[in-house]
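User: Here's a protein and a ligand (pyridoxal-5'-phosphate). What would the complex look like?
Assistant: Let me lay out the input and then the predicted complex.
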Amino acid sequence: GTPNQHPARPPRVLSIAGTDPSGGAGIQADLKSIAALGGYGMAAITSLVAQNTHGIRSIHTPPVSFLREQLDAVSDDIHIDAVKIGMLGTVEVTAVVGDWLAAARPPIVVLDPVMVATSGDRLLAPGAEDALRTLLPESTLVTPNLPELAVLAGEERAESWANALNQARRVSAHYGVTVLAKGGHLVGDHCPDALVDERGFPGGDTLIEVSGPRLTTRNTHGTGCSLSSALATAQARNNDWALSLRECTAWLRDSITHADDLEVGSGNGPINH
Ligand code: PLP
């Protein structure tokens, strides 16, 4: 490309996640999202997932020693500006990622606490939620959807935005992590997103909220994966959560708005990264 297309050194962003060979979610979505937000994308694979826009057929998890090999191969050589963590799948995988984080100490860690896909298929082994919780204090930002937020808070699923914000506040205070509360799973026209940090953002605010009307496409596969990797990339560049949230939610809205143009699959199709 021309020099204009490469104005500054892109942030180096590593996704640690599962795959989606149909290109809508997981590692594949992460790499597209990182590139769209101007980052240099890298990927260490936790699990290989045979899936498409209809759901998951099977999951193959390589030995966890091989995941550690992948992670060390990257961090032994490359300075990592931000990490996005997606599907972990098992207690063993989660422990390896926790050990690697403690050794590599990347400056930004965005944890998408992936539990169940929109299709209803489990992406986290039953009983692995406690292992996932141990990564929260090691993370900069956690990005649960409403059902995942309820699990992290140890409560019933929030039925209102006020209720979701309170759960996010409790998770933030308990684990010392910034929480992205996402309104997309609420019913109604209004579905905001908000960053919540009970320790405060610069300026003393504990809440950074962005609102928008509901979009009506049924093609939303990979939305959560994409937003978390976009936020890791934007924050590595901006060091400003309010700016990063505005930038990423605007980009995500555009990607959802143009999802139907893709004509990929006959199920819950991908967003248009
Ligand atoms: N596949 C992988 C590997 C994922 O990590 C996720 C979600 O995080 C999904 C599929 C599910 O995507 P969605 O629920 O948006 O369809």
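Summary: Residues 17-18, 20, 25-26, 49, 51, 86-87, 114, 117-118, 123, 221-225, 268 surround pyridoxal-5'-phosphate (CB under 6 Å).
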